[in-house]
Write a structure and sequence with these properties.
heterodimer; A: 83 residues; alpha+beta; four-stranded antiparallel β-sheet; 1 helix; 4 strands; 30% strand; B: 156 residues; mainly alpha; two-stranded antiparallel sheet; 2 strands; 3% strand; globular
């Protein structure tokens, strides 16, 4: 019984330790996507969610309902494409 | 004159290095300094002038690369816009019609404003230091001789 309890505590502790790291990373990506959309003169407000499609390739959903694909093209340019 | 060459090299490194990550030690840049020109009217009435702030461009380059205030996409997009602006300056200095210094100044101001606004909340010190170098960098880009030297240094 003690072993089960210890295991449960360990799992809970791991979950608590990992979750904030993941959400901090998500927040950083959202902030980056928000900034790059604004930098390219597109309306957005704030990115509320995103989907990772590949390396340096995201689809972002904005507060105002706009959706954009943001990726780096083969020429090394950041492209912000309205969906 | 040698200090001017160092500034040009440092600027090229600064502009080219926006989107790259990690330290990029380059010998010869350690003493590179920019001396921002005072804003018009400062000290014009015979008041004692405050010492002009100096800016270590090597340090600025490193701080731009490493700052957490700007993410990967934003840094790369800024670099794209810096490259575009430098291309316009190149066309202007090559005498190609349709590009005016006034237009370049407007674009330069806008780009700098974007950089400053991206930095001011999370890295205000870097934002202030870049703002202090505004006129010094403009001088390097707008002067044909300095710009050509800069381009040569960037290529070599």
């Amino acid at each position: 019984m003690i072993r089960v309890f210890s295991l449960a505590v360990a799992v809970l502790a791991t979950a608590l330790a990992v979750a904030p790291a993941g959400s901090a990373e998500d927040a950083a990506v959202k902030k980056d996507l928000t900034a790059v959309i604004a930098l390219n003169g597109m309306p957005c407000g704030e990115v509320v969610s995103f989907e990772r499609r590949g390396e340096n390739d995201y689809v972002a959903t904005c507060q105002d309902g706009n959706r954009y694909r943001i990726y780096v093209n083969p020429e090394g340019r950041v492209v912000v494409e309205k969906r | 004159m040698f200090w001017m060459l160092k500034i040009l090299v440092a600027l090229a490194v600064l502009l080219a290095g926006l989107a790259t990550s990690g330290p990029d030690p380059r010998p010869g840049l350690a003493e590179a300094r920019a001396y921002p020109t005072p804003s018009p009217g400062c000290g014009a009435s015979g008041e004692p002038k405050a010492a002009a702030p100096t800016l270590d461009l090597e340090s600025l380059e490193r701080r731009l690369r490493e700052t957490k205030a700007i993410g990967f996409f934003t840094k790369l997009s800024l670099k794209n816009q810096v490259d575009d602006l430098v291309g316009r300056f190149r066309r202007f200095h090559d005498g190609i019609r349709g590009v005016t210094l006034e237009e370049l100044r407007e674009r330069y101001n806008l780009l700098l404003l974007k950089v400053l606004s991206l930095l001011q909340k999370d890295d205000p010190k870097l934002s202030q230091d870049i703002a202090a170098s505004r006129e010094a960098i403009w001088d390097l880009l707008a002067d044909p001789d300095k710009f050509r030297t800069l381009s040569k240094e960037a290529k070599s």
